[in-house]
Design brief:
Layout: H1 13-17, E1 23-27, H2 34-47, E2 52-56, H3 62-72, H4 81-105, E3 109-113, H5 116-126, H6 131-142, E4 149-154, H7 157-164, H8 176-192, E5 197-201, H9 206-223
Parallel strand pairs: 1-3, 1-4, 2-3, 4-5
Helix pairs in contact: 2-9, 3-4, 4-6, 5-6, 5-8
Length: 225
């Protein structure tokens, strides 16, 4: 989904700077528009001079980017879900060690495009890997590093499929029933830990979603000052 709409108004400086030293994940089903919203948010942060570290998953390091190529290549249709899970965690372990932990130690706002929440939704809720097993692997891969907040951009699988078009990677091409389970997996995470999750209705146009995002983040920052 292209970010063709104009840049949204920048929020107040106090709101953005209050997020320094935090770890925030932008997540949601494929086609939810989360990457567009992440770009808008990080652009506003940079305009205000917020100390920012932006990462993506899988990837974010030379090792992780090699793993990403394997995971998303449609030539690897035979990949088992357990293998898939372990590869995501391997990329994540390198990202935490090499990038995320040092950035947090320096007081930067770390913003990640996906994290453990994706594994819980895709390989867990949709793929059948037990949630307890994923959480155990996450403790090994991430040690004590855990997001302060996960922002979930929620959209149903039919609307998401229309946004994705025809050029799908291996994960995007898994079908409507799979992606319906993915969506429910995200919503279950938010229900289980409401204080660490924001659910944003991503079915609207990009500007409306951005306004909802900034309002929700501002309220969260005030509540966790």
């Amino acid at each position: 989904m292209h970010d063709a709409a104009p840049t949204p108004p920048e929020p107040a400086p106090a709101f953005l700077h209050a997020l320094e030293g935090r770890f925030i994940v932008f997540d949601g089903p494929d086609g939810s528009g989360k990457t567009t919203q992440l770009r808008r948010f990080t652009r506003a942060c940079r305009a205000r001079g917020v100390r920012l570290c932006e990462v993506r998953e899988p990837g974010g390091t030379p090792v992780g980017e090699r793993v990403r190529d394997i995971l998303l290549d449609r030539a690897h249709e035979e990949m088992a879900v357990r293998c898939e899970t372990l590869l995501y965690m391997a990329s994540r372990a390198q990202l935490v060690e090499q990038v995320i932990r040092p950035a947090l130690a320096q007081g930067e706002l770390v913003v990640a495009d996906r994290f453990v929440s994706s594994t819980l939704a895709y390989q867990g809720a949709a793929g059948g890997i037990p949630i307890d097993d994923i959480n155990t692997l996450a403790r090994i891969a991430c040690d004590s590093v855990r997001p302060d907040l996960v922002v979930i951009f929620d959209v149903d699988e039919r609307a998401a499929a229309k946004r994705l078009g025809l050029l799908l990677d291996r994960m995007e091409a898994k079908g409507a029933a799979f992606h319906k389970r993915v969506r429910e997996g995200y919503l279950e995470q938010a229900r289980a830990e409401p204080d660490r999750h924001l659910v944003i209705d991503a079915s609207h146009d990009a500007d409306t979603v951005t306004a909802s995002l900034f309002d929700a983040l501002s309220a969260w920052a005030s509540a966790h000052a």
